[in-house]
Design a protein that fits this description.
It holds the Pfam family ABC_tran. By secondary structure, the protein is α/β, with parallel strands linked by helices. It is built from 17 helices and 22 strands. It folds into 2 domains: 233 residues, P-loop containing nucleotide triphosphate hydrolases (Rossmann fold), CATH 3.40.50.300; 235 residues, Rossmann fold (3-Layer(aba) Sandwich).
Length: 492
């Protein structure tokens, strides 16, 4: 019989009296990819942290290559060959790509950093991921997708024996995801064990060998084969029957709410884009990473400058100089990075909800009771699992996203733009976000959804605008849109 590279026996973790993990046991073998699945709060991150040395178990034990294994910190785990790639990016923006790849492990020559070797080796790792950027450039200004690939390049440079990938494709498009999968297959063939955490069910079936499911801190299911129905996997995660993922869509109203005509980016991110969105319609925007999706919706929302073209709301041409201009006219945007751009995570839920709505309070002074009442109303309306005084950092990804959405929807906007609305959010929480999106359309709001998840953009959209390398490749009706027709346009 094969000996596992990593074995967990009875791993439990408590924070005070609160159990987070309960008696979790499983093995990981060399040359296999094991999916670790569960809703937000199921214990995946805590378990990953224990394996990678950032947390210690309250009970239980681990072995590594048959020997006792209890890393006191991540450095000890890395020395053994165990590397965790976090979902949250941990790059230093003012350092170069190469410096980030080798930070703390600089290649040395004659007592000084061998920068030529560092850049050469970093460029090799980037090439393995089909990321064609200079290793000498700063990380600052790179897209989220490119930063995610740099995080993966860091792990590849460590020659890991066990790699834990936490939502590695959350910010990646189709081409980047395939490049990552190619590397995962190569690492598997080289005998590397991989724990793969993702909320994208189709990629779980595509890249993993077996599946371990956590629910409420316990291992509730282990599937020996990942080629099982998605519904079966999801129902084991949520502990209930899942009748549907995407709600039925309402018919758009006749009135055109938003018109974009020949819009061109001042930074050449997109060119001559034209489309309209009716009241009560959901327009999806699809395309590969670098196609200009985020830049387009940022321009519509007043965050990025345009060189030419126009944006009309209710037939009136807007002169948007800033997001404040767009917000004042009724266009709001939920950004793709909720922690960096959508929330002040160290502040309370109530504060975050109020920050976007200060002008809606009649009084010059915002009293604690008024703030509390406003927060309580928003929390109840959007099903946020938390209290107004709780720091936003305490919430799961799904509840943080609900706070970001709630703070803007409390303004009763005419147009809502959502960029990657379910990035890093579990299957159960996604259903709640989709309900919010569809309910907006039912209220007559014009909705734009940008998503790298093709199943998602197909599931929630009345029509889909496809961008390819900054150009408008086409607009598909719901009847015309499928994974093949969208990808054909996206790769033009």
């Amino acid at each position: 019989m094969r000996e596992p590279v990593l074995s967990l026996k009875g791993i439990s973790k408590r924070y005070g009296p609160v159990p987070v993990l309960k008696d979790v046991s499983f093995d990981i073998y060399a040359g296999e990819v094991v999916a670790l699945l569960g809703e937000n709060g199921a214990g995946k991150s805590t378990l990953s942290g224990i394996i990678a040395g950032s947390r210690s178990p309250s009970e239980g034990s681990m072995t590594w290559l048959g020997q006792p294994y209890a890393p006191a910190n991540p450095a000890e785990a890395i020395d053994k060959g165990v590397v965790l790639i976090h979902q949250e990016l941990q790059l230093l923006p003012e350092l170069s790509v190469a410096e980030n790849v080798f930070i703390g492990r600089w290649p040395m020559k004659n007592g000084v950093v061998d920068r030529a070797q560092m850049v050469r080796r970093a460029q090799e790792q980037l090439a393995r991921l089909n990321l064609h950027i200079p290793a000498t450039r700063k990380v600052a200004g790179l897209s989220t997708a490119h930063q995610q690939l740099i995080e993966i390049a860091k792990a590849l440079a460590l020659n890991a024996r066990l790699l834990i990938l936490d939502e590695p494709t959350a910010a990646l498009g189709g081409a980047e995801t395939e490049a990552l999968f190619e590397q995962v297959r190569k690492l598997r063939a080289e005998g590397v064990g991989i724990i793969y955490i993702s909320h994208r069910m189709e990629e779980i079936r595509k890249i993993t060998d077996r599946i371990i499911v956590l629910r409420d801190g316990e291992k509730v299911q282990e599937f020996a084969d990942s080629a099982i129905p998605v519904r079966t996997i999801v129902e084991s995660m949520v502990g209930r029957s899942l009748e549907r993922m995407f709600p039925s869509l309402p018919e758009p109203q006749p009135k055109t709410m938003l018109e974009v005509e020949k819009l061109t980016s001042a930074e050449d991110a997109f060119r001559d884009v034209s489309f309209s969105v009716k009241a009560g319609e959901i327009l999806g925007i699809a395309g590969l990473v670098g196609a200009g999706r985020t830049e387009l919706v940022r321009a519509i929302s007043g965050a990025d400058p345009v060189a030419s073209g126009s944006v009309k709301l209710d037939g009136e041409v807007l002169a948007l100089k800033s997001p404040a201009d767009a917000i004042a006219r009724g266009i709001v945007m939920v950004p793709e990075d909720r922690k960096e751009q959508g929330l002040v995570v160290a502040h309370g839920i109530g504060e975050n909800l109020v920050y976007a709505n200060l002008d809606r309070f009649a009084s010059r002074w915002l009293t604690p009771s008024a703030k509390r009442a406003f927060a309580d109303k928003a929390i109840a309306a959007f099903g946020v699992k938390g209290r107004g005084e709780q720091p936003a950092s305490d919430l799961s990804g799904g509840n943080q996203q609900k706070v970001v959405i709630a703070k803007w929807l409390m303004r009763d906007p005419k147009v809502v733009v959502l960029d990657e609305p379910t990035r890093g959010i579990d299957v159960g929480a996604r259903a709640g976000i989709y309900d919010i999106i569809v309910n907006l359309a039912r209220r007559g709001v014009a909705v734009i959804v940008v998503s790298s998840d093709l199943e998602e953009v197909l599931g929630v959209s009345n029509r889909i605008l496809v961008l390819a390398q900054g150009n408008q490749a086409g607009i598909l009706s719901r009847e015309e849109a499928n994974d093949v027709s969208v990808m054909e346009l996206a790769t033009l």
